[in-house]
Amino acid sequence: xxxxxxxxxxxxxxxxxxxxxxxxxxxxxxxxxxxxxxxxxxxxxxxxxxxxxxxxxxxxxxxxxxxxxxxxxxxxxxxxxxxxxxxxxxxxxxxxxxxxxxxxxxxxxxxxxxxxxxxxxxxxxxxxxxxxxxxxxxxxxxxxxxxxxxxxxxxxxxxxxxxxxxxxxxxxxxxxxxxxxxxxxxxxxxxxxxxxxxxxxxxxxxxxxxxxxxxxxxxxxxxxxxxxxxxxxxxxxxxxxxxxxxxxxxxxxxxxxxxxxxxxxxxxxxxxxxxxxxxxxxxxxxxxxxxxxxxxxxxxxxxxxxxx
Length: 308
What we know:
The chain is α+β, with helices and mostly antiparallel strands. The chain is 31% helix and 26% strand. It has two domains: 21-52 and 162-307, Alpha-Beta Complex (Nucleoside Triphosphate Pyrophosphohydrolase), CATH 3.90.79; 58-155, Transcription Regulator spoIIAA, CATH 3.30.750.160. The strands form three sheets. Strands 7, 8, 9, 10, 11, 12 and 13 form a seven-stranded mixed beta sheet that branches. A hairpin with a 2-residue loop joins strand 11 (229-240) and strand 12. Helix 1 crosses helix 10.
């Protein structure tokens, strides 16, 4: 998802344009198209993607602050490879990380992650860094300092909170454009996804990430992509084979002009579907859990904006 590039939008986290009257009218029309879907149903979908850690998972602490969750089988390999790390009653405590800054933390974690990779504990290496911001309630800002940066494939081993951007694309009549994940994808191949989505790389703004993903995955012009509107945040948490997945999904809605047909440029999407609200609800079982949650959050946000 991070191959290629699209023109930069600058550091802003929000869509740069205020919602015009005609856009509010368009939002109201789309919200009306989804009126038959009960709010309770949308909230039930959101509830599916937030799980509690299984019994036996151990907290990973940077000094006094819990920053991750470790699968039981990950504790010993980590203690052997991360200096100044010890097991306590609270969990695994990284004392060395508390005594240094972000750059040194990043270096120590990178060395440990490489050693874990060589031992087979971390797979799917991407050579892409994610910033660790903690469990913040707002969108990350690359202008603000992070705790450290780490290879994205290592985040699940440590159970760290990552951030991703997901975009719902709505046609004027309320239908929603969804991508079909390529069969070559390592995760959820062939399943229905949002119009575009991707992890937030270290040093990248949320808006730049949205513009890039819409360019790579849906072939949309940056000028159109800049019109995305923030639609809230969804936290997804679940057990995965690599460890604990904990990610804040930053949800955006994009109102697509009539006649817009997305086209994939990076090979990660095999095709697109344009689904009515009824069709989308009927095919929830074919969607990734995250995509279903993002769609539900997007519709709830549309209703709120339409009522404003």
